[in-house]
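User: These chains co-purify. Model them together.
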Amino acid sequence: NAGVTQTPKFQVLKTGQSMTLQCAQDMNHEYMSWYRQDPGMGLRLIHYSVGAGITDQGEVPNGYNVSRSTTEDFPLRLLSAAPSQTSVYFCASSYLRSGANVLTFGAGSRLTVL
Amino acid sequence: SQELEQSPQSLIVQEGKNLTINCTSSKTLYGLYWYKQKYGEGLIFLMMLQKGGEEKSHEKITAKLDEKKQQSSLHITASQPSHAGIYLCGADIRGGNKLVFGAGTILRVKS
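Assistant: Joint model of the two components:
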């Protein structure tokens, strides 16, 4: 099992450029989410999805778009990159059972915006 | 998230010593999760606590949940270099499956 696969692992963008961070899981998890990790701030939830066709905002959604057309994929789009979006991004997925939400994380994507 | 406060922010211990990391919520906990992150890598799930008074152990790591205090503690017995990393607590404090995380505790174990 590959688990949660994120691509690319590293990316450098210029301010104003757009890009998509890819996330795919092969565990048939209904729940998927995107976090960003910044020093001293822990993980902050950007967007999440409880199933195909359903997405919702997290704590820091501005500047990011998501879609969930299939159970497996949950891409994160940066429409016009800003230096404040320099961060490490993590995708995670889980089953939702009995009130539990045990996330399986990808290895992360390190994004630098110049 | 400021809704979850972890302490201490960082910790350096001598190999073989015990240590405790705390996670305190400002809101009702619907589930508390502990993860470990090695530098530059993703997060690995350690334990989940759902009920007040619940205690779980895995190898030399024990986690407890005090629901009344809205607090969880992670205790490592006889620390080893392999325990080094960043420990993060996550919690569902709003219902609706939105997990928020604390800022993390950086643990270094000196040999």
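Chain B is about 0% helix and 55% strand.
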